[in-house]
């Protein structure tokens, strides 16, 4: 369970950094890959949280 809490904290930090990047520079082509990674990471984390 502790691993899921750490994964959740990492996810929120990454989302915060992603939103900060969009706020400062706007959405550029360079953010396509991080966006996809965050979506997949969020889906996997959601699946693991429901499973427990």
Write out key terms for the chains shown.
single chain; 52 residues; mainly alpha
Largest sheet: none
Fraction of residues in H or I helices = over 70%
Identify the overall geometry: elongated
- Rg result: 12 Å
Cα(first) to Cα(last) distance is 8 Å
Low-confidence stretches: none
- The number of distinct helices, counting runs of at least 4 residues, comes to 2
> Pairing-aware structural class of the strands and helices?
mainly alpha
**What is the percentage of strand-forming residues?**
under 5%
List the domain count as a whole number: 1
| Number of extended strands | 0
Q: What sequence of helices (H) and strands (E) makes up the elements? A: HH
* Mean pLDDT level: 91
Description of the structure:
This protein is mainly alpha-helical and 52 residues long. The chain has one domain (1-51). 85% of the residues lie in helices and 0% in strands. It contains 2 helices and no strands. The protein has helices at residues 2-25, 32-51. Helix 1 (2-25) runs antiparallel to helix 2. The longest helix has 24 residues, at 2-25. The radius of gyration is 12 Å and the shape is elongated. The termini are close together.
Gist?
The protein has 52 residues and is mainly α. It is 85% helix and 0% strand.
Layout of helices and strands:
Layout: H1 2-25, H2 32-51
Helix pairs in contact: 1-2
Transmembrane segments: 5-24, 30-47
Keywords: Membrane, Transmembrane, Transmembrane helix
């Amino acid at each position: 369970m502790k691993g899921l809490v750490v994964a959740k904290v990492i996810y929120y930090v990454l989302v915060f950094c992603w939103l900060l990047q969009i706020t400062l520079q706007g959405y550029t082509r360079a953010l396509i890959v991080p966006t996809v990674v965050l979506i997949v990471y969020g889906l996997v984390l959601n699946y693991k949280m429901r499973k427990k």
